[in-house]
Write a structure and sequence with these properties.
The protein is built from 17 helices and no strands. It has about 300 residues and is an all-alpha fold. The longest helix is centred in the middle third of the chain and has 16 residues. The protein is rod-shaped.
């Protein structure tokens, strides 16, 4: 049975302090640094239930910090920290500042190189649990500083759902893009040269600039063949070939497939058809016969026949 003490014996702060001094001695906790390991059950077994309940809302850490103010306590080192301890941004900030040297952080931007697991191992596990991510912890502690989620180490899945447009705007600044159509001149190599874009492009979009832009800015109509690079095998797809040819027909004002007879190979190449034409070894004739097999193609003169190249 636990020893009981009258409530009156706890009224004096000196009595409460003497109780803890006796308790830590009995537990062999000689240094204040060891007191972080004192458990609530230790206090209860020693007859301190009333002390904790009436004066410290059941918190051992609150009692120790109140009774021994001459020591500088790190509240996160206690086995159980007081409730709502991380609700105070000043305390969160103090914790981060004390952990910074250990994590090789000398300025706020250095936090981008820290992974959440390192902060958790340094005593911040409950802090990360409360706020969900390292970036959210830092934003709460330093509200005047904007932490960009894509600059942090680790998974990008979480922020891609909420900050994709912000990421695209940031990426455009890195690339010097002022107008949306300038994206068509950006190569995969350029994006892979930007660390933050490299991870996103490879891990989430399979290295495809087109797929990335479709997801980050779906309100814009992106046209695959306008990009300097298209996915492997893109021009081998008959569907893609027909889409390209239909788009050109519309821009050229051609009413029906047979109207292609008025377009020379040189004109077709000037309209961006070189990559498609290479599938057919440079032969417009082979291309048109394959894409429009229903048309009975004929040539009005030898010059056109020579220009269009051999049949398939």
């Amino acid at each position: 049975m636990r020893p009981k003490r009258p409530k009156a014996s706890w009224r004096e702060k000196s009595s409460r302090r003497a109780f803890f001094q006796e308790l830590v001695r009995s537990k062999g906790l000689d240094s204040p640094h060891d007191w972080y390991n004192l458990k609530k059950q230790d206090v209860l077994d020693a007859g301190g239930s009333g002390l904790l309940r009436h004066y410290y809302n059941g918190s051992v850490s609150a009692a120790i910090q109140d009774l021994f103010p001459e020591h500088k306590w790190d509240h996160w080192k206690f086995s159980r920290s007081p409730r709502n301890i991380w609700m105070d941004p000043a305390r969160v900030r103090l914790f981060l500042e004390q952990m910074a040297p250990k994590l090789k952080v000398s300025n706020l931007n250095d936090w981008y190189q820290v992974v959440a697991e390192d902060l958790a191992a340094s005593g911040g596990e409950s802090l990360l649990t409360k706020y969900g991510s390292l970036r959210d912890v830092l934003q709460y502690a330093y509200p005047d500083h904007q932490f960009l989620p894509w600059l942090f180490q680790g998974s990008h899945k979480r922020w891609l759902n909420s900050a994709r447009l912000d990421f695209l705007i940031w990426l455009e600044k890195q690339l010097g893009i002022k107008y949306v159509d300038e994206w068509y001149n950006v190569t995969q190599e350029q994006l892979l040269g930007i660390r933050e874009a490299h991870t996103v492009l490879v891990n989430h979009y399979g290295g495809s600039v087109y797929r990335m832009l479709q997801d980050l800015n779906p309100s814009h109509e992106w046209i695959e063949w306008k990009f300097r690079q298209v996915p492997a095998g893109f021009w081998l797809s008959m569907e893609n070939q027909k889409r390209f040819m239909s788009s050109l027909m519309w821009s050229l004002g051609l009413k029906q497939p047979s109207d292609w007879a008025s377009i020379t190979t040189k004109q077709f190449l000037g309209l961006g058809g070189a990559r498609l034409l290479s599938v057919y070894d440079g032969s417009m004739r082979a291309l048109l016969q394959k894409v429009y097999p229903e048309v009975q193609w004929s040539w009005e003169n030898r010059e056109q026949k020579r220009d269009w190249g051999p049949a398939e």
